[in-house]
Amino acid sequence: MEYFFEDQENKQNLIQIMTEWLDTPFRHKTCVKGMGCDCIHFVGGVLAELGLCVVKRVELPDYPKDYHLHNTKELLAEGLEREFNVEKLRLTDKLITGDIILSHYGKASGHAGLFHDGYVYQALNRIGVKRIRFTDPKFRAQMKFAYRLLKDQQKGSTQ
Fold first, then answer.
1. Which CATH number fits the domain that encloses residue 125?
2. Regions of the chain where pLDDT drops below 50
3. Cα→Cα distances 75→40, 70, 79, Å
4. Which of the listed residues 49, 86, 89, 123 has the most CB atoms within 10 Å of its CB?
5. Average confidence score pLDDT of the chain
6. Could you tell me which residues come within 8 angstroms of residue 13 by beta carbon, excluding any fewer than 6 positions away?
């Protein structure tokens, strides 16, 4: 299988775009670089800038900010699997630049970020978009899933 971020140009574009998003404030259900975003819409906004989706939002049903604390339905995982052609990974697999990480803060995934070179770029509540070490114990303990984008982004197609 071929992966989208095995391509050097795609990888460099991702790094540049993620860097441009740094310090964007956290805003629930928003996706405007420099103005505000939440974690899943940060991921969607970055992927949209790379041309991987038409809209900057990962389509999710309406949800309250604390959805993941009280429900077990994996809305973030389902949204990523529905919108993108991805392969689910274990966190023990060797991650590559561009892998999407979902974390649990409660009963379901309530946080998303993008991996690059030992860091996770993520939009943090009350903090904004930051680059945090993948090994940071506070964040690492909550990480539950990882997804890798396939090179062919037509749903249902594998090469």
1. 3.90.1720.10
2. 156-159
3. 10, 12, 6
4. 123
5. 88
6. 50
